[in-house]
Specification:
Blueprint lengths: L3 E8 L5 H4 L7 H11 L2 E9 L2 E8 L4 H12 L11 E4 L1 H12 L10 H15 L5 H21 L8 H12 L8 E4 L3 H12 L5 E3 L3 H11 L2 E2 L2 H5 L7 E4 L10 H7 L6 E5 L16 E5 H10 L2 H5 L1 H50 L4 H31 L3 H10 L7
Parallel strand pairs: 5-6, 5-8, 6-7, 8-9, 9-10
Antiparallel strand pairs: 1-3, 1-4, 2-3
Bound molecules: NADP nicotinamide-adenine-dinucleotide phosphate.
NADP nicotinamide-adenine-dinucleotide phosphate binds next to helix 8.
Length: about 425
């Protein structure tokens, strides 16, 4: 009857970011369905971002190999791909991990805000397809609330620098007088927006491009930059001294050959690839005059700049260590709820059956009298059942599953979950 909460994850901590994508579930509804149908998992929530793929699940009899095998079959990976990358924890450790996620401690950039929104989206997507149930819904709802409170009270997310601003800062550090240089931004999504905001704030002119010209036009109207045709850009890298690339293209947009051509009559170009997986071939860094920085290097610099946030880490950890036992008690208490609900429902249906029999025998039709007798039967049932049920909840909260097992036998409870 005791349900364990399990967390199985592959994150940037154990895998290079550009490899992580291989562990991602391409068809999320199918992943949910497969985990629930083919394993002992009864509820699950998947969190999938460019830095992590995480499964939270409930099970009364879980088996890590089973989870790993399903994950491997859904992603087409070999089992051994998980050998050094998969991290697994359960119950108390899983609650702590989720709180670290919602408060930003687990992020590549400590305290970053985006993960909280991604977790909210993950639980609501899981709810929509009924993949999560009352345990994970409760756990996520609590953890999101605590994470938000921690962020507000400690300011862990304040005083940092965004990836976009860091990319521009790195360009400033490596290229003299950016104002006199030609700057190109490839991409019009979220990451490109961060770069554009920073360029605009510092007054640097830039060209922007996206596969669809309308998208670059719309982007430039709100975020600045001059829209240019994608096809022209791909054949004209020689026009630029600084190139920011932030797309989800599944292949190299900036190739060795194109850059070799582009560098024929030029002395230097700096390329900052924010994409994961890479959209700039690392080999271009071997071309004389090219300085290439990829997302891992940019993120590392962001991390170093996070002193203010890092100073707050121990405060956040202290709050988390106070919250974990409270969540643990709540989750344990939930173990008793199906039985408690069942006992109350059965007792009430017996009450109604006997009440109706008695009313029939009495031939009672007076509404006021019927109400008094009805209230009386309710009060009797309530006073008999409440105390043992509250004791059962308490026992469950204090981690005493034996009492639950005994009570299940006594009340002939059959698990319905
Ligand atoms: N968002 C973040 O906070 C963040 C942080 C770190 C790193 N990153 C990385 O940055 C990259 C972009 O992420 P994002 O969040 O900005 O994504 P996004 O909002 O979905 O935007 C995707 C961009 O990629 C372009 N694109 C997609 N397929 C393409 C293709 N085949 N050829 C050329 N362009 C293509 C899209 O332009 P069209 O629609 O015009 O094709 C769009 O500009 C990703 O690799 C991501 O891992 C993002």
């Amino acid at each position: 009857m005791k349900q364990n909460i399990i967390n199985a994850r592959v994150t940037f901590r154990k895998s290079p970011i550009h490899v992580l994508e291989k562990f991602a579930f391409k068809d999320m509804p199918n992943a949910y369905l497969t985990f629930k149908k083919n394993s002992s998992v009864s509820e699950c929530v998947i969190i999938q971002t460019c830095n992590r793929i995480e499964l939270f699940a409930t099970s009364d009899n879980h088996n890590v190999d089973e989870i790993k095998n399903i994950w491997a079959s859904l992603t087409g990976l070999e089992d051994n791909a998980f050998r050094d990358t998969l991290e697994v924890c359960e119950n108390r450790d899983a609650y702590e991990h989720l709180l670290k996620l919602t408060s930003g401690l687990e992020s590549l950039v400590v305290g970053e805000e985006q993960i909280l929104g991604q977790i909210k989206e993950s639980i609501s997507a899981a709810r929509k397809v009924d993949a999560s149930g009352k345990r994970l819904n409760k756990l996520f709802e609590r953890s999101i609330r605590i994470g938000t409170r921690i962020r507000n009270s400690t300011g862990i997310g304040r005083g940092g620098i965004s990836l976009g601003s860091m990319a521009v800062k790195l360009a400033e550090e490596n290229v003299d007088d950016i104002k006199s240089k030609h700057v190109l931004l490839i991409g019009t999504g979220e990451a490109a927006t961060m770069v554009a905001k920073s360029l605009k704030k510092r007054g640097y002119a830039f060209n922007v491009t996206s596969r669809t010209l309308e998208r670059s036009v719309g982007f430039s109207q709100t975020l600045g930059g001059k829209p240019v045709k994608f096809e022209d850009v791909l054949t004209g890298f020689s026009d630029y001294e600084i190139i920011f690339v932030a797309t989800t293209a599944p292949y190299f947009l900036v190739t060795f050959e194109k850059m070799k051509d582009a560098m024929k009559d030029k002395s230097g170009t700096m390329i900052l690839d924010l994409s994961n997986p890479r959209t700039v071939d690392e080999k271009v860094a071997t071309i004389p005059g090219i300085k290439l920085m990829n997302i891992d290097q940019i993120a590392e610099m962001v991390d170093k700049n996070m002193k203010n946030r890092k100073d707050k880490v121990s405060t956040v950890e202290n709050i988390i260590s106070e919250e974990v036992p409270i969540i643990e008690a709540t989750m344990k208490r939930l173990d008793a709820e199906p039985l408690v609900k069942d006992v109350f429902t059965n007792a009430d249906s017996l009450r109604i059956k006997e009440l109706q029999k008695a009313l029939q025998m009495l031939g009672e039709t007076d509404e006021e009298r019927i109400r008094i007798i009805d209230d009386l039967t309710k009060a009797v049932v309530e006073s008999i059942v409440s105390t043992p049920m509250n004791n059962l909840r308490k026992a469950s909260e204090q981690g005493n599953p034996d009492l639950l097992d005994i009570a299940s036998k006594l009340f002939v409870y059959k698990k319905k979950e």
